[in-house]
Specification:
single chain; alpha/beta; Rossmann fold; 5-stranded parallel sheet; 7 helices; 5 strands
């Protein structure tokens, strides 16, 4: 079985904002490893909404958003349900590390799966809340 890696929205957005994002080759490499079965990319279900909202804030129209939503599903990510236990863990992590609850949910998922978190989110990277690494150096 391939090792799980939790990704956050800062990584997933690079697949869809290729011209505006730094770190696209690194994000693509993770996706290729996922498709080859080397790793298993995982993320909380709210990544769907975070990614779509970020794209909407950058003027994506309804058709573009629908294509992204369908594309996210076709990637076959391991979706971690945002249930009561994950929500409580995220809330505590948010308070302890001064993160948004949304960002802390990625940390909580990594802890739950005993997985590394890959992110480009500077607020998350400033913590030692879980095993993590920056997507880009």
């Amino acid at each position: 079985m391939s090792r799980p890696i939790v990704i956050d929205s800062s990584v997933a957005l690079k697949w869809f904002r290729r011209d505006e994002e730094h770190g696209v080759p690194e994000a693509d490499s993770l996706l290729l490893d996922h498709r080859a079965g080397v790793v298993r990319l995982a993320c909380p279900t709210h990544l769907r909404l975070e990614a779509l909202n970020a794209l909407r804030m950058h003027s994506a129209d309804g058709d573009q958003l629908e294509r992204v939503a369908r594309s996210l599903e076709s990637i076959d990510l391991f979706w971690v349900q945002v249930d009561e236990a994950l929500s409580i863990s995220a809330a505590r992590l948010a308070a302890d590390y001064r993160l948004t609850v949304y960002d802390a949910t990625f940390v909580a998922a990594a802890l739950m799966l005993d997985a590394e978190l890959v992110t480009d989110d500077k607020a998350i990277l400033r913590t030692d809340a879980c095993r993590m690494r920056a997507l880009t150096a």
